[in-house]
Write a structure and sequence with these properties.
The chain is built from no helices and five strands. It is an all-beta fold.
Length: 68
């Protein structure tokens, strides 16, 4: 029987459009701005000004980013 609750991500806040996030992954992309969240693919488009790139990042937070 599944409850639909993910015990690994329930402790982390997920980002929304317009939020700033701090990347905690080994990629070290620093601070990013969430441009778009696509719930159907569980991805968000984040702009990282320091590296001058936009990257798709997993929206479901498993500790790889912190909402600032």
């Amino acid at each position: 029987m599944s409850t639909g609750i993910d015990i690994f991500s329930e402790h982390y806040t997920t980002a929304n459009k317009g939020d700033f996030i701090k990347d905690n992954s080994p990629n070290k992309r620093s601070l990013g701005y969430v441009l778009m969240v696509d719930h159907s693919t569980n991805m968000m488009l984040v702009k990282f000004p320091k590296i001058g790139k936009r990257k798709w990042v997993s929206w479901k937070n498993l500790g790889h980013y912190t909402v600032v």
